[in-house]
Structures are given as C-alpha cells and as structure tokens.
Amino acid sequence: MNVNFAFRGFEEHSNTLKQYAEKRLTKVTKLLDMNTMIDVVFTKDTHEKKTEIKVNHKGVDFLASDVHGDFDASIDLCIDKLHRQIVRDKDRKVGQRRS
User: Fold this and answer.
1) Second label for 82, Cα 20 to 30 Å away, from 33, 39, 48, 57?
2) Is 2-98 a CATH 3.30.160.100 domain?
3) pLDDT score at 96
4) Cβ–Cβ under 8 Å, residues 42 and 8
5) Other residues' Cβ atoms within 10 Å of the Cβ of residue 98
6) What is the average per-residue pLDDT within 66-89?
7) Distance of CA 8 to CAs 2, 15, 34, 44, 78, Å?
8) β-strands 37-44, 2-8: how paired?
9) Strand partners, 25
10) CA distances from 21 to 77, 88, 89, 95 (A)
11) What's the pLDDT score for residue 38?
12) What pTM value is reported for the model?
C-alpha cells in the first residue's frame, strides 16, 4: 500500500493531517490489495480547505474530493465516498461473475 501526500498552499507539512488520514484510510484499505496506490492532496485556499483522494486499484481509479471548512470533516466525507465506490464496484464484479 503506497500512500502519497501532497500539500498545496501550506507553509509546513502537517503531520497530524497525515496521521488522521492514514487512520481513516484503514476503512478503505481493508477492501483493497497491498499493491494499491493512494494519492492524498490537501489544498488550503483563503476560505476553503479541499481534500482529494485518488485510489488506483488494479487499473481502476476511484476519486473522491470534498471542500469543507475543516480538513477532518472533508477527509471523513472523502473516505465515505471512496468506500461506497469500492463496494459498488466489487458488488458489480461479483454480479457479473454469477450471471
């Protein structure tokens, strides 16, 4: 599992954001293999804080982004979106094999 973090608009990198994102990413990583690439981009604007998470799993890209006033809330929303996308994709693949 390769997790890459990028910070845009920050003067210093925040280790607390990294730790929180890694902790929340365990919800998604339980569904994926070890050879998965995850890119997390934190963008800080004047009034907005944006989080983008891109997961590349076996050639399939899952993307979630959210703009919120707080990074923790935007991370949580992105993780929930990714979880739904991955579960939906797995269910669709199982349904195709059964028919």
Assistant:
1) 48
2) yes
3) 73
4) yes
5) 6
6) 93
7) 20, 14, 27, 6, 18
8) parallel
9) none
10) 11, 22, 23, 32
11) 94
12) 0.88
Residue with tokens 């934190």: 42
pLDDT of residue 45: 87
Rounded Cα gap, residues 8 and 93, in angstroms: 36
Q: Is the pLDDT of residue 1 over 90?
A: no
In Å, the largest CA–CA distance within the chain is 53
- Contact between residue 7 and residue 18 where contact means Cβ atoms under 8 Å apart: no
Quote the pLDDT of residue 99.
66
The helix (run of H) or strand (run of E) holding residue 41 is: strand 37-44
- Sign of the CA dihedral 36, 63, 39, 65? negative
pLDDT at 69 over 70: yes
